[in-house]
Please model this.
Amino acid sequence: MCLDNLANSNFSKIQYLRSSNNEITHPALKAIFKIGLTEPSIISEHDELFDVTALLLVKVHNDKTILPSLVDTIFFRNREGLFNLDLIWAFFEARDPYSLMLIANYLESDVSTDVKLARKLLDFVPSIDMSEEKNGKKQYIDFFRFFKENSPFLYFTGENFQRTSKPIRYIVSKTAKYLCKRISLNTCDPLTSLTDNENTLFNNFNKLDDDNQSLLSNFSLRLHYENFSLWDSWIKTSIPNQIRTAQTGLMF
Amino acid sequence: MIIISSDIVKIDLLINQYKWSDVEKKILTMMDLSKGRYEYTSLAQLQFELKLRENIINASKKLNAGDMNFSTFRKSTCNPDYWNRTDEGAFKLKKGILPSDAIRDIDINSSKYATECATAMVIIYYKALLNIYGDKLFNKVFPEIQLMNWHYLNNPIEDVGYISKRSDYLPGDRQYFNNPDVNPTTPEWQGENVINLGNELYFGHGIGIANADKIINELNDYRKENAKTSAYLLDSAGRPDFKYLADIYNESKMT
Model:
């Protein structure tokens, strides 16, 4: 593909991207993306070309290096009142929980529209509060703590703004947190197979109500981190005993 | 099961005691046979929900019969006499224009409008509520309107933006067909918002009225090359807060 050919006509560029994207190499797409970054445009078709390029880079070439620029463009367009939903979709479709920190940085922005959008995009995180009064620095720290604790247990839901006004992009697997086992981001399955004992724990845990699941998963991870041998003893006790211990927090 | 003021309703009695349309009777029967509990504080609340569900269905059919086009937000169009089109592709009610007139114009001058599937759903809710509330109440409850998928929803209809698993999927529900393997160059086909019309039919703007298989086949045509996962109907639905909207309506009749 000759990039020069694409530089001359907006119409042909988008048409070409749509119809023949298989023929366009990753470096060529990256070049188009970089041109779009250095020449932000008020012409909708230029933005559309940029969006489709970003989508191809993320979803076809699994290119996560563009995510920082993508986030900055999303927030730039938000400030200008321009269309950014396709870029937001592209960003989350990268399925990279670590990139959420790029959004979290905007929680501390001096620009109120930035903060509002950052909260909206991270609204699935329990500590994020949409109310105006919340301190940006505190929100950032709360998000960071949530992320540090839960990132190995997140899985991607695929929810987006076309489907719902409040997409829950990622969910914490309480079962994985309870067993302290990392999971696949896409399938929610454990990355390593469960032992017979873990399978039993898994089944018993899933019979519990939501409150007890939260109690045990939080307690288990904390104990696992603080004192592995104590955790190893605790997890081998019966579920009622685990709940009693977690309720009293006696092991700390 | 239907419960009004803590009493379980005898469906035959209810159907014979009041006048119901065929659609209302069908929904009532589905609610009665359900394992879920449909609870109301008054008969008026239940009557309102059934009426609104039927109006949502009728508004969907009317929108389908009109000339409103399907387009992405970038190419959305509206009648500039009633709406300002924003740079992000939303339609914002013009100052000095009555909300009821602007919503009604979407039917009258449908060919001047083009948008995507979620915004069409929101238009349907406004049209259905306008039909029940009438101009005066509608304009009081919705003095400002901005149409753009599930963004900018007015508080009284905020709940239509959320979807969750339900014990039943009833005519008038908003549902969603997901298309996980969509071609990335056509993000507008990442899914299709639909209104459940009953009789296993759905209305989705851009596809029309069809059964689930046909909608899935349409979405599958917009998948990437070598796609492995078919589009599918999600096990969830969005509903307005029928009781809240009913209370607004019933209170207005008392004043």
